[in-house]
C-alpha cells in the first residue's frame, strides 16, 4: 500500500482503455511490452482484462471501441517506470507503436534537480505512453 493518508493508500492501480481491436491491444501490451495477463471477464464487446505492468499497476482493457482513433482526451498520457527507456521504446515500436518523442535526458525542477530519461510513443488506439527513468540521486 502507498503512503497517501487522505485516500487510504495511494499509488496507481489501473488506467482504463477502450480498445478498437481487443486482441491486438492485449497482444501489444503482453507480447510487445511484457505485461502479464491478470483477471479477465465478460464476452464479445463486453470483455475486460487487467494487464499487470510489472509492479502491480494495471491497464484495464475494455473491448467494444468505436474503431476510430480519438483525439487527445482528459488523460494526457500514462507513464510507466523503466530502467532502460531506449530499450522500452524499441520494444514498443517493434510491437506496433509510433515514436512521438525520442528518448532524451531532461532535468526536472531545481530544488532538488532531478535528472530523468524519458520518451513517448503512441499506442495502437492513439493512447500516449511515456517511458520514465529516474537516473540521478533524487528518485521519482
Task: Name the descriptors.
alpha/beta; single chain; 8 strands; 2 helices; four-stranded mixed β-sheet
Quick overview:
The chain is α/β, with parallel strands linked by helices. Helices cover 15% and strands 37% of the residues.
**Approximate strand percentage:** 35-45%
The side-by-side strand order for the widest beta sheet comes to 1-4-3-2
- List unreliable stretches of 5+ residues: none
Query: How would you spell out the order of helices and strands?
Result: EHEEEEHEEE
The major β-sheet equals: 4 strands, mixed
Q: Please bin the fraction of helical residues.
A: 10-25%
> Which overall shape is indicated by the principal axes computed on the Cα atoms?
globular
Question: Can you count the beta strands?
Answer: 8
Query: Termini distance?
Result: 17 Å
Instruction: Report the structural category.
Output: alpha/beta
The residue-averaged pLDDT reads: 87
Number of helices: 2
**Mind telling me the C-alpha Rg?**
16 Å
Amino acid at each position: 500500500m502507498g503512503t497517501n493518508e487522505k485516500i487510504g493508500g495511494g499509488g496507481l492501480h489501473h488506467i482504463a482503455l477502450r480498445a478498437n481491436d481487443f486482441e491486438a491491444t492485449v497482444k501489444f501490451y503482453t507480447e510487445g511490452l511484457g505485461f502479464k495477463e491478470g483477471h479477465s471477464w465478460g464476452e464479445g464487446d463486453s470483455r475486460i482484462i487487467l494487464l499487470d505492468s510489472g509492479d502491480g499497476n494495471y491497464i484495464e482493457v475494455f473491448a467494444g471501441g468505436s474503431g476510430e482513433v480519438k483525439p487527445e482526451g482528459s488523460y494526457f498520457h500514462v507513464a510507466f517506470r523503466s530502467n532502460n527507456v531506449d530499450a522500452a521504446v524499441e520494444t514498443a515500436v517493434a510491437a506496433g507503436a509510433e515514436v512521438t518523442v525520442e528518448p532524451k535526458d531532461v532535468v526536472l525542477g531545481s530544488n532538488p534537480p532531478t535528472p530523468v530519461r524519458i520518451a513517448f510513443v503512441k499506442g495502437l488506439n492513439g493512447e500516449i505512453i511515456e517511458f520514465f527513468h529516474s537516473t540521478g540521486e533524487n528518485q521519482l
